[in-house]
Amino acid sequence: LETESISNDFEYVWHIVPVDLGERSYDILIGPGLLLEVAEDLKRLQLAHNYFIITDSNVKELLGTDLLNIFNQNDIQASLLSFPAGEESKNMETVVSLAREMVKLGADRSSAIIALGGGVVGDIAAFLASIYMRGISFIQLPTTLLAQVDSSVGGKTGVDLPEGKNLLGTFAQPKRVYADIATLASLPLRELKNGLAEVIKYGVIRSPELFDLLEKQGNEIINLEPELISHIVAQSCAIKADVVAKDEREGGLRRILNFGHTIGHAVEAAAGYQIAHGEAVAMGMVAASLLSVKKGLLSSHEADRIKKVIKGLGLPVAIPSTFSVKELVDLTKHDKKSIGGKVNFVLCESIGKTVIRDDVTDDELSEVIEECMSND
Ligand SMILES: NC(=O)c1ccc[n+]([C@@H]2O[C@H](COP(=O)([O-])OP(=O)(O)OC[C@H]3O[C@@H](n4cnc5c(N)ncnc54)[C@H](O)[C@@H]3O)[C@@H](O)[C@H]2O)c1
Questions:
Q1: Looking at ligand 1, which residue's alpha carbon is closest to its atom 22?
Q2: Is 353 a catalytic site residue?
């Protein structure tokens, strides 16, 4: 996928990924050190009269205050707002309290929101932007690998209810995304792996080249080698952007992004959300490849390659055998993306090529889950 078209306006941009959505099109800029030139770029863009940087308590300390200082040095009016880090904050109470703070600080329709942080910040801040005074502009500054390759691309915003995750939300596209890969240096390994699970997914569903890279350069990736990680983020964004451009509201093609997620969500639910999302998706991808072999779609050699890449990047390939197989099978049926009671499984024909099937039987699923429980 083509991602290069660097403009001279930038010092720190290594890749630009255009997201083609007609009037709502925007660019994803990627490179190390990029945060340093966001203020200057926003001055050029003249997006808003004043900016509200929304972040969480961790990222505020790591990057938020510095970013605010850069805005001030550039004579851009900006305020820094934060909430306690963690998924527990992703609710309406946080949205309302941020909105009230913005009103107090004089935010109006000519203001813009900057989401600085991981997927939790991105989802909350973009949701707030999409409803504040019936919608104001926002930009994304993702600081986790997951946010850079997944949640900041595609326009889904939202918060959780006690009844379930992401039950309230909107579709809203940012004006620009700045993925500064240097921010990943402070990211705990567990969070890095959450993002890597999604990168592996992109390789499997859409890009044999990306998959090869993950296969051959696992160590360099874990060590965040800047050129490599910028390239991987760009490729991942390009794949998601391409899928989203063809199916913005999840009518069809976008479902392929769910590879590994149907069984992964069941594992997460069975674990009472005590297993990291990326780890559950990793197990789900192994299970989905075995299911693809069982359906006669994928060779066992390719399924093995998928398993090895997942393992090589430090992600789990075995579903804990303490879980009940029957419970996991039942939980896949409650996946919110099932249609008319039928569960759609994203299966794989070869690395880079997927197919959606709704004819997986409970027996086939049970056999595959059992097989995954004895993986090593
Ligand atoms: N909108 C979408 O399309 C979409 C897609 C996938 C996931 N999501 C959502 O994304 C959320 C998960 O995102 P996440 O994994 O980024 O979690 P997160 O936002 O909770 O970030 C994980 C942790 O890393 C910290 N952190 C962030 N940047 C850091 C940095 N540079 N250095 C050190 N620590 C840093 C955060 O404070 C947090 O403690 C979920 O709520 C999920 O529903 C949304």
A1: 118
A2: no
pLDDT, one tens digit per residue, over 139-198 is 999 999 999 999 999 999 999 999 988 999 999 999 999 999 999 999 999 999 999 999
Measured between alpha carbons, how far is residue 173 from residues 3, 64, 141, 207, 327 in Å? 19, 22, 13, 25, 37
With beta carbons less than 8 A apart as the criterion, state whether 117 and 53 touch: no
Would you state the pLDDT for residue 3? 54
Residues 6+ apart with CB under 8 A from 342: 358
| 305 catalytic residue (yes or no) | no
The closest residue, in CA terms, to atom 19 on ligand 1 is 118
CA geometry: angle 94, 109, 89, nearest 5 deg? 10
Between CA 237 and CA 251 the distance in angstroms is 20
Q: How far apart are CA 173 and CA 175, in angstroms?
A: 7
Is 198 known to be catalytic? yes
Longest CA–CA span in the chain (Å) reads 64
Ligand 1 atom nearest to CA at 126: 1
More confident residue, 287 or 343: 287
Expressed in angstroms and rounded, the spacing between residue 371 Cα and the centre of ligand 1 is: 31
Q: Burial level of 257, CB count in 10 A (0-12/13-18/19+)?
A: buried
Instruction: Name residues whose C-beta falls within 8 Å of residue 308's C-beta, 6 or more positions apart in sequence.
Output: 215
Q: Is 250 considered catalytic here?
A: yes
In this predicted model, what pLDDT tens digit does every residue of 82-121 receive, in sequence order? Answer: 999 999 999 999 999 999 999 999 999 999 999 999 999 9
The pTM score is 0.94
CA of 147 to the centre of ligand 1 (A): 6
